[in-house]
Amino acid sequence: MTPRADRFAMSKDSNRLPGTALMRWPRWRVLALTALACLALLATLAGFEWRSRAAALADVQQQSDNLAAAVLQQSAEVVRQADFAIGMVRRAQQLDGRSPAVAVSVREVVAAEVELQPTVIGIAIYDAEGRLTSSSLEPDAAPPSGTDLDFFREACSVAADHLHVGAPLRVSLAGEWFLPVARRLSERDGSFAGVVMVAVRLQALQDQFARLALSDNGLVTLMSRGGTVLVRRPFVLQAMGLSMAQISFWQQHVVARSAGSFTNTSPVDGIERHMSFVHHPEFPLLAIVGVPPTLALAHWREQALRHAAVTGLFMLLLVLAGWRIQRDMTRQQRLAAELQRSMTHLHDLQHAIDEHAAVDVTDGEGTILRVNDRLCRLTQYGPDELRGRNLTVLDSGRHPDAFHRAMRQTLIAGQVWKGEMRCRAKDGSHLWLDTTIVPFQTDVKQPAHFIAIRTDVTARKQADQAIRQAHQEAAAANEQLARLAAFDELTGLPNRRHFNDTMAAELKRAQRVHQPLAVLMVDVDHFKPFNDTYGHGAGDECLRHVATAARKVQRRPSDLAARWGGEEFVLLLPSTGAEGALAVARLLCSSIEAMALAHSSSPRGHVTVSIGVYAAIPALQTRPEELLEMADRALYQAKQGGRNRACLYERELPVSTELDGVAA
Asked: Helix (H, G, I), strand (E, B), or coil: what is residue 608?
């Protein structure tokens, strides 16, 4: 230290040194402050961990709600396919009436629908007396009488045209499980005429549930609206068809709300879980997802234990510090007069500050007069390398001139300056120091010395930067998830949800401006034999080729090609009439023909498609489902006519058209 710095240090009244007033406190006050500090730490920890626990439970509940909604949507799609098959059979039944050929016609429709729907085992028809009149199931697979079946009784007792989902049945004692999905048949006068039942392969739903990422003892259950267990993961034989309608949790929670959550012990396996459920708005189905609370809070408990350990260590240090303060107080009270007249107290204070903060003393021109060991360790300079040099040696050059001007104006005015400064160490690395600079005035107006107390906050700054980076990455991940939700992963085309949203908007626009709107339903011919012959990898590649061809026929920004599901694709052509839609169909057929994808199971030796076309100026009451239904009817007509063709739906019946030598 220079003589000038020595005079500065010695000129101060020792009674004003930090800690002197504290040493005059009674011992009970230090004990009380230590106890209050410990209690404050415990209260802060308890409040933080309680909020963390609530956040962990909320996160698990959100994940369970999302998973339940996804399970219900997947299951509803399977039931929707079965309902579509029921509709086809009912229409065939209505067209044939009571003619002798009705059974033959219905069996043909049943066989065609079973072939088209991989999730459907078969279709059975019961008359009003419960007798089995027609079935595509294996012999003895369908119950010969429907009077004992729950869905038959419901359809008989309810006059409205509702979809009924019955309890699971088995083809035989050791055979395959199936889920009966049924609607009633009505006479022309509205009286009960029987039931059409579609047997949905239960294994298809179980396979979907098996692909879900569940924790140990996690639960996924599909139930009917009446409380019957339809599908369950993990599979328990005794739970199949079990009714939960009279159990307390069903009455208290599930019946009264369309969606929600609760905690309950399963009556099947006795495991307590946090349950999330959601009802389907259209079908009599609901999904329940359960997660054991112990698993939901496992990560929180691990973090809580770590936080408790750190807090306990800090409290121990606080108690030790209180004990040391008490010891020092006793010593200070005994030697107060002698310590105030000596430099020992100043040395002890300097040592305490050196352990916790970096300190430097500069003159009015910024020349460094004194530094402590802490500052030397942080900046990697030795004391002799800093003393006598200007403080700018530590300047990072990252702060603007206005920053330095404002700081100097504050200090020259005799005020304390506080802020965070970015400094440069000897090796060129940067560190952030939380700085408090105190000016000391002598007999002149401007301060003669400045004492800076600095705390290293580099780790906090880096943590803040890491948090900002994590937020940016989370935003990018959310954007990617939004894209995955709107596009098919295999083909890169928009998925069914994206297509439905776009079609709803385009339908409203077409109704408003009175312009035509065309829908093309595209199905790859003989795709199941293709998969069986060449494998699912080749099948995926075939779908990608068809998707490429569909993407290429989009000539306008408003055109939209999407994957409808399986081997089906759909095109939306705004402001396009029948002639334009057939031209697009012609182009798509030609493009796929030109690919010449080998298909030994096809009569033509290569991959072909069937296309259903519907184009019209929609009426104000037209719904999107009607457009899709008309295009699907045309597609069905094209496949019935021999495939490798497009069929235009006009008025009541589809009309075939020739497209460049390809029947359409």
From this structure: coil
